[in-house]
Each structure stands twice: as C-alpha cells, then as structure tokens.
Automatic annotation (TrEMBL):
<feature type="domain" description="EF-hand">
    <location>
        <begin position="111"/>
        <end position="146"/>
    </location>
</feature>
<dbReference type="GO" id="GO:0005509">
    <property type="term" value="F:calcium ion binding"/>
</dbReference>
<dbReference type="InterPro" id="IPR011992">
    <property type="entry name" value="EF-hand-dom_pair"/>
</dbReference>
<keyword id="KW-0862">Zinc</keyword>
<dbReference type="Pfam" id="PF13499">
    <property type="entry name" value="EF-hand_7"/>
</dbReference>
<protein>
    <submittedName>
        <fullName>PHD finger protein 24-like isoform X4</fullName>
    </submittedName>
</protein>
<keyword id="KW-0863">Zinc-finger</keyword>
<dbReference type="Pfam" id="PF16744">
    <property type="entry name" value="zf-RING_15"/>
</dbReference>
<keyword id="KW-0479">Metal-binding</keyword>
<dbReference type="InterPro" id="IPR001965">
    <property type="entry name" value="Znf_PHD"/>
</dbReference>
<dbReference type="GO" id="GO:0008270">
    <property type="term" value="F:zinc ion binding"/>
</dbReference>
<keyword id="KW-0106">Calcium</keyword>
<dbReference type="InterPro" id="IPR018247">
    <property type="entry name" value="EF_Hand_1_Ca_BS"/>
</dbReference>
<dbReference type="InterPro" id="IPR031946">
    <property type="entry name" value="KIAA1045_Zf_RING"/>
</dbReference>
<dbReference type="InterPro" id="IPR011011">
    <property type="entry name" value="Znf_FYVE_PHD"/>
</dbReference>
<dbReference type="InterPro" id="IPR019787">
    <property type="entry name" value="Znf_PHD-finger"/>
</dbReference>
<feature type="domain" description="PHD-type">
    <location>
        <begin position="44"/>
        <end position="104"/>
    </location>
</feature>
C-alpha cells in the first residue's frame, strides 16, 4: 500500500519490522480544563518551511499557531488544489490547519497505525491505493458471512454504503489512505481515556469552544441546559466552517444529560474538536454523532 501524506502523496509513517502489543492506556489521573483559567496562546513567528523571520505575508494555523510564508506555502503545494484552496481560509473566522495538525494519525501509537495499514490493504483488493465502494461492500459481505454465518441483508448493505459515504469526504467514490486514516484515527481516539484526548487539545482550540460556551452561559456558573449546549455546538461548528447535513445539530451533542457543566462538555467533545482540524468546510466532515438508542 502506498500510504499518503495529509493530502495524498508520500508515506507518513516508517514502522519497525516488529509489531508491538497494543497499548491500552488507563485514565490514571483525572485531567480537566479549567473554566476560568485563560488558555496561554503563543505564536511562533518563524516560518515552518524556510525557518525565516521575514515580515512578508504569512498564513497561521488555527490549531497550533505556527506560521508559514505565503510564498513558501505556494511553492511547496503548487499543483495541490485542495491544499491551496484550504489556505485561502487562513484569514477567515474558520481558519486553516497546517499539515502537521491535520494529520490525526500522529495521535496514534505504532501498533494502531500498523494495524490500520494492514486493514487498508485487506480492503484494497486490487492494490490501487484506493478503496472503491465495490471493494468495501464485498469485504463487508465476506466479513458478515465469516463472522455471523449469514448473508448481508439489503438494509445492512445500505447502512454500509452510507458509512462508506461518510468516510469518502472528497465524494469521488473511493476512499484514499488519508480519508481512511483520518476516520479510523477518530475511531481510535474515541476508545482512548478522556484525559489523554483532553491533553491533545491546543490552547487555541480550547479558547474557541470555551468563548462560545461562556457566551451562552447566562448563569455564569459554567453550566448549560441541553438547548443551550446544542446552540454552542451549532455556533462552534459554524465558526470552523462546518454544517449539519440535515440541519440537526442536536446529534453532535454527545452527552444525554439535561444539565451540562463545562467539565462534562469539554471531556465529551474533545474528540469532536480534534476531528474538526481537517481542512474541510460545509456538510462533509468527520465529526462524531450521538448513536441512536
């Protein structure tokens, strides 16, 4: 398999030959993000590409705050229409995410990454470095027959096709390595301890969501009701350029509580915030939704 970079070319991981046992971290210490503690925002004034300090035009990552010269970026990503289009949002409220922050695979360990590479190869039966919907459905049918001993139903097949469409963010009818890695990285992050995921949030990400939370906290006690919390999710999603495909933002609120304190809100939605790092706008995104009961 030819593993892609955050936009599609080159390899992003170099793995040793020996596979480690999976690391299952424990939530050994309760970590939280204080409601009234101002995040410490820093800015790296050097260009991440040329390392220069020139005062020429720069674009800044909305996640980490690092900068790169516009000219340096254009030279490096010349011909990459997706990257060039994303960089145009750097000066908007939604902002732009640098390639390092957009690569969610960096938040996984070596074992998890190796397992994903193997799984991608299993789906990609013709080794074309892309998984077509036909390959995906065929693999799922075989898996259903092997694990459950029954043929996949038409209803189940439709569900699998819908799932495929959710991963195929580009909408080109195929899943590339980057789309697969991103979707599965979010899946793995959902299984990790919440304290671990919280620690991956940057001060800029925390400030954006907390400012919106505070603007809706009419009691000033750091607590919202469900309606207010859904409003926060909608305003936050819109602030990073994302929309709900069907206009329903309540499904992005991942807690069932009627009263939602800040600590619960940020712990339950840390993965959602990380999933929004991807340079997509509109209705096509990787944000987790609440499972139907």
């Amino acid at each position: 398999m030819a593993c892609g970079s955050s936009v599609g070319g080159g390899k992003v991981f170099s793995l040793s030959g020996q596979r480690r046992k999976p690391y299952v971290p424990r939530d050994e210490e309760y970590y939280t993000i204080m409601y009234d503690e101002e995040p410490r925002i820093t800015t790296d004034v050097t260009c991440t590409i040329c390392k220069g300090f020139e005062r020429s035009a720069k674009i800044q990552c909305r996640v980490c705050g690092r900068n790169c010269h516009t000219n340096c970026f254009e030279r490096r990503y010349r011909g990459d229409e997706q990257a060039m289009e994303a960089s145009k949002r750097a000066d908007t409220e939604a902002g732009w995410t640098c390639a390092d922050c957009e690569n969610l695979g960096q938040l996984l360990d070596e074992y998890e990454t190796s397992m994903l590479m193997d799984k991608f190869d299993e789906y990609d039966s013709d080794q074309s470095t892309q998984i077509t919907v036909e390959e995906y459905i065929e693999f799922q049918k075989d898996l259903c027959l092997e694990s459950e001993g029954i043929e996949m139903s038409k209803e189940r097949e439709e569900e699998e096709r819908e799932l495929f469409g959710n991963i195929d963010i580009s909408g080109d009818g195929a899943i590339n390595w980057w789309e697969f890695l991103t979707a599965k990285s979010i899946h793995f992050l959902n299984k990790k301890p919440k304290s671990y995921v919280l620690k991956q949030l940057t001060p800029r990400e925390i400030k954006r969501i907390r400012d919106i939370f505070k603007a809706n906290d009419m009691s000033y006690h750091g607590v919202l009701d469900r309606e207010e919390a859904v409003k926060v999710m909608k305003e936050w999603m819109n602030s990073v350029g994302l929309e709900s495909p069907d206009g329903d933002y309540s499904k992005y609120l991942l807690t069932s509580s009627c009263v939602i304190p800040w600590d619960t809100f940020i712990r339950e939605h840390a993965v959602t915030i990380i999933a929004a790092r991807i340079n997509n706008v509109g209705k096509q995104h990787f944000l987790p939704v609440k499972r139907k009961s």
